[in-house]
Amino acid sequence: MKETNEGKTTAIVAYLTMVGALIAITMNVEPKNSFARFHTRQAFGLHLCFLGFALFLSVWFNPYAWYGLYISYLALWFYGFLGALKGEEKTIPILGLYFQKWFTFIP
């Protein structure tokens, strides 16, 4: 419980923007906190996927695809952000487990 409370600020900062995720990575370098690391990986992956799909959609313009992207991003962001606020380590649906595997370089 103590580790969760200590890493809560870093976890919340990670969900703010992609820049917030990068700031959270540097905040968690020393001392390392597993709760903050979990949410930093989730937020970094979520922001990275959003930016990747946004770049793809910028070439292939379809307004309904943009609506779907924003709705799914906001729903997943809200799910992860609430988990960080509550102090829970729940993975983001579908991609959360992959984010934990792919982003092992995040301390």
- Average pLDDT, all residues: 89
Radius of gyration, CA atoms, in whole angstroms:
14 Å
Q: Count of helical segments? A: 5
In percent terms, what proportion of residues is strand? under 5%
Largest sheet: none
| SSE sequence, one letter per element | HHHHH
From the N-terminal CA to the C-terminal CA, the straight-line distance is 20 Å
Shape: elongated
> How many individual β-strands?
0
Low-confidence stretches: none
- Summing up helix and strand content along with how strands pair, one would put the structural category as mainly alpha
Q: In percent, how helical is the residue content?
A: over 70%
Description of the structure:
The chain is mainly α. The chain is built from five helices and no strands. α1 runs antiparallel to α2.
Outline the fold blueprint:
Elements: H1 2-14, H2 18-27, H3 34-59, H4 63-86, H5 96-102
Helix pairs in contact: 1-2, 1-3, 2-3, 3-4
Key phrases:
107 residues; 5 helices
Give a quick rundown of the structure.
With 107 residues, this protein is mainly alpha-helical. The protein has helices at residues 2-14, 18-27, 34-59, 63-86, 96-102.
